## 1
Amino acid sequence: MPPLYTPQMPKGEYLQYGGQAIIEGVMMRSPRFFAVACRAPNGDIVLETEALEKTWIGRQKWLKYPFLRGSLALIDAMALGVKAMRFASNVQMDPAYQKKPEGDGPHVVEKPMDKRVQDIAIGGTIVVSFAMALFIFNYLPNLIAQPLQQRGASGTLINFATEIVKVIFFIGYIWLIGQMKDIQEVFKYHGAEHKAINAMEAERPLSIENCAAQTRLHPRCGTSFAIIVLIVSMVIFTFVPRYPFSNGQPTFYLRDVTTRFLLELMILPIISGISYELIRFAGKFRNSRFVMGLFWPGLMSQYLTTREPDEKQIEVALVALRAVVEAEEDGTPLEDEPPSNAIESASPAPIGL
């Protein structure tokens, strides 16, 4: 293991370091770099560190302003998550990491990422994931709630019922996948990622013991972000007219549902922007009991998406975190100030956040 040290956290900006849990590992990112560390079947920790590429989205400066950067943060986290998941999957299937030579203990192995992982493949995965998530967590709840109109319910009541169904679907989905053994392992790495970030932000030496002593909850977790999105959606969507294009009167069942879905889709970036600024606020004032009390639902939801990790899982998280910290310390200054658009301690990729 690399020598212990206390990293110097940037004081001017809290949203600097974050990560995601992946198959048998953790992806960590800093303002300019990201690293993937995963435990291979033979016990080795396979590590890769890369500079963050300036994609087309990253060059759009208007997307980095408050209330606009929330959508960018979500896309950015998903893109890196897909790339990290592909890398981890390749490591698990690579014959070179299946069997350990006798007498040789586990060690860290640096492995370059497969350059065949093209942006178009990542983009396609993101599009499909978004489409499925929108259908399950947006279109389907509207479809289920719409029959209340036939019972004389007002548009506002139907909207509220739709938001309740969304919450039930989301919590139920997390709980359901959390029963799977493989996902439980990913959730342990999610807990290890949180503990490593918490130790760093507490300015503690990055040791397994110091990380293990930290909480597995984090105010800037992607799960918290999702819960805040649901809460903000409930407040806003409930009072958005359900039939804005038909003089407030229902027309045709599927047409009303589809129209409502498209209307919510147009408003969703605004809700993401508001939610992201709230998450940033929570991170900045994480030591305030009052602020943490306001974000209590998001924190409690992390008990569903994290598990207590063991030392080997914390070790993997530390390898990834140290890699990006050292890359930042050794890297050359950027021409422009790097955007702070990462969701800190984002939820594990299988959740699709």
Note: Strands lie at 18-22, 25-29, 33-39, 45-51, 108-110.
## 2
Amino acid sequence: MRDDLAQRGLGGSTIRHRLASLASLFEYLCEKNAVTHNPIKGVERPRTESGEGKTPALGDHQARKLLEAPQDDTIKSKRDRAILSTLLFHALRREELCKLKVRDFRHARKGVPHLKVSGKGGKTRYLPLHPGTNGLVNDYLEAAGHGTDDNGALFRSVSNNRGDKAERAITGDGIDKLVRDYSAQLGFEIGAHALRATAATNGLDHQADIAKVQEWLGHTNIVTTRIYDHRRTRPEDSPTFKVAY
């Protein structure tokens, strides 16, 4: 059975999860006397991976340079600055950023501006809006002229910003190209997901509570969030240096 799953091109993590689910199902069926044995029992699972994130995270100085990379006074540069800030300060998936509407930028909770994010599985989360991002998005909307179009896409392709295609959002590929172009100019080409990894890693490195980071990222399982937590590998964070006699 494991070989069949592997032949379908499934990764080790997916195979482990499916075998575990099947094992639980057959264990239940055995308890109910619906089957005589558990065929999954004894099937070897693929080895677990190290748990280290495969997506690179930028250092603080690289993130700052990237935020400053769009320097022109054009609508495109204003949009790109707002997009990069939204990704680096709110850790959105690129699909989540593409789905943002103008109205999603207008929320407030207890007097604090929030961003409404439509995540995986139809789950919605509200993220406090970083003041710098807030200013950059407002600058972009003022220049682009669609700030009153509440139902329209927040971030749009510059060529589609007016006319019949005004509500068409920038695509995920467009966001990825944007990040790759600016980062390549700075000497470290990365994709859009690296900015999510950067935000998560940075927050954890600066002592953000991991449960809060899990909620912030929209992760169902905290194990996924731990991939971004590199504190356990830093010598200065070892319990060795916390012990005091």
Note: The radius of gyration is 22 Å.
## 3
Amino acid sequence: MNLTINGSAVEVDDRHAKTPLLWVLRDVLGMHGTKFGCGVGYCAACTVLLDEKNTKSCQTAAERAVGKSIVTVEGASGPVVDAIRDAWYRGNVVQCGYCQPGQTLAAVRCWSRIPPRTPPRSHCG
């Protein structure tokens, strides 16, 4: 199986096709940023972006990610990610931080869907 993770092509043995993407990332590829929480898709600690959509990797077979772009917290970068991390740091949001990777990616997805602000139009003239 060929996967694209954080912009890089990665080959994974086909025997892992039915394995949840979470475990392929963590156990097969050694990427430990994506966390295991509840295992049933409720907590979203395992969130990754799959073709820019929030995806619970504990409930997604690795084969469903073939041909798609996977972004994990390790690969999240750019001004939106920096702004989210900075705001959470300044706001003292983090408690234990365990589910923060999933929350970060969910916030990135949410923020990226907001249209850029445009200057307000004047109603005069």
Note: The first strand starts at residue 2 and ends at 5.
